[in-house]
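Q: What would this chain look like folded?
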Amino acid sequence: MTQIYRYDELDLSKIEFEVPEKQGNIYYSQVKCDNNPFYLQTSKLNILSDVNELSGVNPSMEFEVPDNNLDIHDLFHELDDMLVKTTYKNSVEWFKQKIPLEVIDDMYKRICKPLKRNQNPTLKFKLPVIQNKVVCKIYNQDRKFINVEDIKKDSTGILILHIRGIKFLKQQYLYDIYITQMKVFIPKTNKYLIPDECLIDGDFCTQSDEEIVDDVAIKKIKKNKEQMILRKKEDINKIKMLQDEINKMNRNLENIE
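A: My prediction, written as structure tokens:
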């Protein structure tokens, strides 16, 4: 199982930098955490990039650190300082010469940009691309897979970063970091809950609207007819009773006479 290190639980003392090795025109140092690949889970960040404007061989996305989560910025600042000090300490072993701390610090391209007054700090990370296609896994808040085009600017997201190593170039060196997974919280605009399956009774579904109307009309007519017949029977009984009373009165008159 892949080990994921949460930003608020990370022990910096477990981070290891291997001796840089020449790879083409650069030197590369592998980075591990407790002898595992260094996968870091961030806090929730605000997405500043418009994915429709992503371009280039190595596209990247920019994120804003919200006011209530500045701890993640502090962590990356500590990672920056840690790398500068480690490079200075190992410069003789790594590069066969003693390099002044000021030179090392000037050459290093930091994860954290300089803070600006009255602005929240921002962070920028690369997206992995193979054959012009972004290959990191992206999910929404329901843990369903979505495409990079579904990411909306000004939404929020949590990242899994792979801090893979350190690249030493001619004029600078920097962390090799890319986004391996992203969970994006996309605002839901649909206020209606409409199930996909048919919830209407199966027998009811087999009848057409006309048949349904006809059935209702027939039942109503039948009921009215039954009520009318019942009223006629009641009227006939009343007439019969009245006739009996009249006959009785006539017999009494005959007896009196």
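The domain at 4-185 is CATH 2.40.50 (OB fold (Dihydrolipoamide Acetyltransferase, E2P)).
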